[in-house]
């Protein structure tokens, strides 16, 4: 039977998100501690647990058919791989930062300076596009320490909350690349393998759609039913159920998480009561 091999990060910022996604897809991974390979028991998928830096290369070469990596790593490694899905977790940005007490009036201030980074390609392309000539000093980790030990004038590294920059007396001056986890694939997979990728993507889409929506239940006075229904753009139209109190009905529908908070005041004003918002596990449109 054809099986797909998927490379995921062994341990680090992508591991939990990758494993959670696979589990939410209903795929069981019997993982032995320390094992670098595992096979799903209920889906034609084999897992390789690797360093994230190696994943784009392994996917290009077909050692793995699929991989989950940050967009930052996928673009930096510049391998011949297809992006098959944006996964929406491990969101961060690649930013240039300088010592907090240094003046900064714009990119031209970086001319002639040295910048330490683990992302020489993304940074190099960005500087070139913006006509800045700086010396890129490649280091593989703990980049934020560089200005404090006289290794470079500035850094270019991943930022999420900004707390690592703050702890190292640095300030973010340019955000140059937005990243999130991507699913990448070897170009030209066989039809059998593509069919398995499609099954996996079907499940992932159902989870992502569910995550972006909420199931909402509320009681509404019958006299304001039209107003309330107009506030609730359901998948098709809301379900209306009778209640013991005949002046009220119960409305059930699905609403985008983002919409919910913007509609809540208007719903209450129209007399909606007993509003329940329930997470959805899977949603197939
Ligand atoms: N602070 C963060 N918040 C969210 N996502 C992040 C953060 N830092 C990194 N990432 C994303 O997670 C990926 C992996 O980050 P991590 O720090 O685990 O890498 P690593 O130390 O290179 O791991 P490895 O040992 O596998 O090489 C990054 O390439 C990026 O896409
Ligand atoms: O803005 P923040 O929320 O502070 O996150 C940014 C930090 O997170 C990542 O490192 P990580 O903590 O994964 O450690 P690593 O350097 O060992 O990869 C990244 O390289 C930054 O240093
Ligand atoms: Mg790495």
TrEMBL record:
The keyword Chaperone does not apply. Keywords: Amino-acid biosynthesis, ATP-binding, Cytoplasm, Glycosyltransferase, Histidine biosynthesis, Magnesium, Metal-binding, Nucleotide-binding, Transferase. Its EC number is 2.4.2.17. It is found in: Cytoplasm. Residues 210-282 form the Histidine biosynthesis HisG C-terminal domain. Pathway: Amino-acid biosynthesis; L-histidine biosynthesis; L-histidine from 5-phospho-alpha-D-ribose 1-diphosphate: step 1/9. One of its GO terms (cellular component) is cytoplasm. Feedback inhibited by histidine. GO terms for biological process: L-histidine biosynthetic process. InterPro entries: ATP-PRT_HisG_long, ATP_PRibTrfase_cat, ATP_PRibTrfase_CS, ATP_PRibTrfase_HisG, HisG_C, N-reg_PII-like_a/b, N-reg_PII/ATP_PRibTrfase_C. Its cofactor is Mg(2+). It catalyses: 1-(5-phospho-beta-D-ribosyl)-ATP + diphosphate = 5-phospho-alpha-D-ribose 1-diphosphate + ATP. Gene3D superfamilies: 3.30.70.120, Periplasmic binding protein-like II. GO terms for molecular function: ATP binding; ATP phosphoribosyltransferase activity; magnesium ion binding. SUPFAM superfamilies: GlnB-like, Periplasmic binding protein-like II. HAMAP family: HisG_Long. Catalyzes the condensation of ATP and 5-phosphoribose 1-diphosphate to form N'-(5'-phosphoribosyl)-ATP (PR-ATP). Has a crucial role in the pathway because the rate of histidine biosynthesis seems to be controlled primarily by regulation of HisG enzymatic activity. This is ATP phosphoribosyltransferase. It comes from Flammeovirga pacifica. The gene is hisG.
């Amino acid at each position: 039977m054809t099986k797909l091999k998927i490379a995921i990060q062994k341990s680090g910022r992508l591991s939990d998100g990758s494993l959670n996604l696979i589990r939410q897809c209903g795929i069981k991974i019997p993982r032995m501690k320390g094992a670098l390979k595992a096979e799903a028991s209920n889906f034609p998928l084999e897992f390789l647990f690797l360093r994230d830096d190696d994943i784009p290369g392994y996917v290009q070469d077909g050692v793995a058919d699929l991989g989950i990596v940050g967009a930052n790593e996928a673009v930096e490694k510049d391998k011949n791989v297809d992006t098959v899905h944006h996964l929406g977790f491990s969101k961060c940005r690649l930013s240039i930062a300088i010592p907090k007490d240094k003046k900064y009036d714009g990119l031209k201030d970086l001319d002639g300076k040295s910048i330490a980074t683990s992302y020489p390609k993304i940074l190099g392309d960005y500087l070139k596009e913006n006509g800045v000539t700086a010396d890129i000093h490649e280091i593989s980790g703990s980049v934020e320490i560089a200005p404090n030990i006289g290794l470079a004038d500035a850094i270019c590294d991943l930022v999420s909350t900004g707390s690592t920059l703050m702890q190292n007396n640095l300030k973010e001056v340019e955000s140059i690349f937005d990243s999130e986890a991507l699913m990448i694939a070897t170009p030209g997979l066989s039809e059998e393998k593509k069919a398995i990728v499609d099954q996996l993507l079907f499940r992932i889409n159902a989870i992502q759609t569910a995550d972006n929506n909420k199931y909402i239940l509320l009681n509404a006075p019958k006299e304001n039913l039209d107003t309330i229904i107009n506030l609730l753009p359901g998948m098709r139209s809301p379900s209306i159920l009778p209640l013991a109190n005949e002046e009220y009905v119960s409305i059930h529908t699905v609403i985008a998480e983002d919409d919910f908070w913007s509609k809540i005041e208007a719903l209450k004003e129209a007399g909606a009561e007993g509003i329940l918002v329930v997470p959805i596990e899977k949603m197939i449109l």
